[in-house]
Write a structure and sequence with these properties.
With 104 residues, the chain is of the alpha+beta class. Helices cover 23% and strands 29% of the residues. A four-stranded antiparallel beta sheet has the order 3-2-1-4, with helices on one face. A hairpin with a 4-residue loop joins β1 and β2.
């Protein structure tokens, strides 16, 4: 699990955590990326450009004894990522998050 910040639709930068890997709990045969943006959105944003910076690493993937154990760990990862991002608030102003118009 990694944690990072991202910007959606040229708007504010949101905290997020992501999983990059094989999801061994479900026995996936393809590598995937799953993102959890720590914000409630009124609508979906499929097809929108997302920019993000990986700022840390939480843990390796593992297979869980139950779906409940997986959910409990995901919630702990979200809390840890959010807490750690508070210490890295300066990255919200990184050049990556500026739109093309802002950098010209």
């Amino acid at each position: 699990k990694q944690w990072y910040q991202r910007r959606v639709r040229g708007g504010p930068v949101y905290k997020a955590v992501t999983s990059v890997g094989w999801n061994p709990h479900y026995g996936n045969e393809e590598k995937s990326i799953e993102v959890h943006i720590l914000n409630k959105f009124e609508e979906d944003f499929y097809g929108e450009e997302l920019r993000f910076i990986f700022l840390g690493y939480i843990r390796d993937e593992c297979k869980f004894e139950s779906l409940e154990a997986l959910i409990e760990r995901i919630n702990a990862d979200i809390k840890e990522g959010s807490d750690r991002l508070e210490e890295l608030i300066e990255y919200k102003n990184d050049e990556l998050f500026k739109s093309s118009a802002e950098t010209q």
